[in-house]
Amino acid sequence: MNHVFAAAPDSASMSTQQVKFFSGENVPLELHKVRVVQKLHLVPLERRLAATNESGFNTFQLGTKDVFLDMLTDSGVNAMSDNQVASMLQADDAYAGSQSFTRLQSAVEDVFGKKYLLPVHQGRAAENVLSRRFVKPGSIVPTNYHFTTTLAHIMENGGRVLEIYTDEALKLKSSHPFKGNMDIAKLEAAIATHGVASIPFVRLEASTNLIGGQPFSIANMRAVRAVTQKHNIPLVLDASLIGENAYFVKQREDEFKNSSIAQILRAMCDLADIVYFSARKVSSSRGGGICTNDKAFFDSIKDLVVLYEGFLTYGGISVREIEAMAVGLRETTDETVISQSPQFIEYLVNRLDEQGIPVVTPAGGLGCHIDAMGFLPHVAQKEYPAGALAAALYIASGVRGMERGTVSSVRDEHGNDVLADAELLRLAMPRRVFTLSQVKYVEDRLVWLHKNRDLIGGIHFVEEPAVLRFFNGRLAPNSDWPQRLAAKFRQDFGDSL
């Protein structure tokens, strides 16, 4: 039987084109051509082993000269389009009143449906401003799942996050289409328990980052909106991965299977009182923003933007990036642009799953997520299996992924690790960056690593920052397992890189 894969539409089409391969293999198709290239380096095994030690077993500390495929994140590293690059040449270099901002404001209104825009230098800057405006000591912020910087900003201002997810959310291997949904009964119970006065806003994250890039449905968002309206609580949407969420809604929610990505984006944003985003993700550029149709709210926080970010028409962003943001936001409504990353992720997830490698299913947005506790059942969670797996994959391949587990968590008041709900190795798939042969190389090295997983051991902190420790912390192995893994690699691959 021939398999079918979905190609993205041209600008005149609202439905996904179908293309058949005679071979029967289900392969994602790149609907772009490469015009500018950047040379990559696959350094030898000995250098990878040395770089792992020099970086303190923290992939954030690796230099790109030692990285072959950089799958650390999609933030700020998506490929820009020719139209985005061209738009940067028309930037209006002005500290205040720049026409570049006017063009961005128009794009935000067209795509997100919000009239008032406050630019900020990236997503966490938006979180800082919103937390300073809303959160106070004792505040409770219900969310479908936290993100690391969101949690840090809320805690910094004396609040805490209350995760309200469904029973499906933490089932890593599942067929549930919307594991990012919020449990409505639990939300109502939380409001009854803590009181409306203690809840400054309810937050929904489009494509929940820390549990595998899993989306929520619009039906669920409508239900959340009904609760927040009833209690007069603002609904805040983190739209940093809203394009991917919209793509999954189109693929998985029957009501929207014939809707355009643009229509789905507006449907989500119309349900939110406030939308904030990282342009490093959503528009393949840099910067970020907070937008709303509430003039009173806009007026209440604009001075914080001036204080922490810059003037209201640049917000700490280069005007050249503002031009690229405007074009990128509009391109997010193009299914050709938004579909490739999820299709490549799905391809890798399915290939690994077929070979018995534990991955988060169904495939989500942002990246392929490996279940590190399933991959390394012999490594205790307190020994940071996701961090160890990230280091092991780099040694075996030169591929830089990101730990999304207990290293990315925090300690409690007694100094003990708050163990993560899931120990994941995230392999990000920035938009239009990797080729299929590179994805297949990742698959190959993961298969080899899985066959030799018993050689991998745990790691521990030797330098641990108090806040967001996963960025700058340094760790060390609990044994000589990196050397033993490298010896096995030499045995199997010889002088091959």
CATH homologous superfamily title of the largest domain: Type I PLP-dependent aspartate aminotransferase-like (Major domain)
Mean model confidence by pLDDT: 93
Unreliable stretches: 1-17
Q: CATH topology of the largest domain, what is it called?
A: Aspartate Aminotransferase, domain 2
Strand content: 5-15%
**Helix share bin:** 25-40%
Structural notes for this entry:
The chain has a 5-stranded mixed β-sheet with strand order 4-10-9-8-7, with helices on both faces. A 3-stranded antiparallel β-sheet has the order 11-14-13. A two-stranded antiparallel ribbon has the order 1-2. It contains 18 helices and 16 strands. It is α/β, with parallel strands linked by helices. The chain folds into 2 domains: 26-74 and 335-493, Aspartate Aminotransferase, domain 1 (Alpha-Beta Complex), CATH 3.90.1150.10; 82-331, 3-Layer(aba) Sandwich (Aspartate Aminotransferase, domain 2). α7 (218-231) links the parallel β7 (202-205) and β8 (235-238). It has helices spanning 45-54, 82-87, 99-112, 123-134, 148-156, 184-194, 218-231, 242-252, 261-270, 279-282, 295-308, 319-331, 335-354, 372-375, 385-397, 436-451, 469-472, 481-493, and strands at 4-7, 17-20, 69-70, 116-120, 140-143, 160-163, 202-205, 235-238, 274-278, 288-292, 367-371, 399-400, 402-404, 424-428, 459-463, 474-477. The protein is globular.
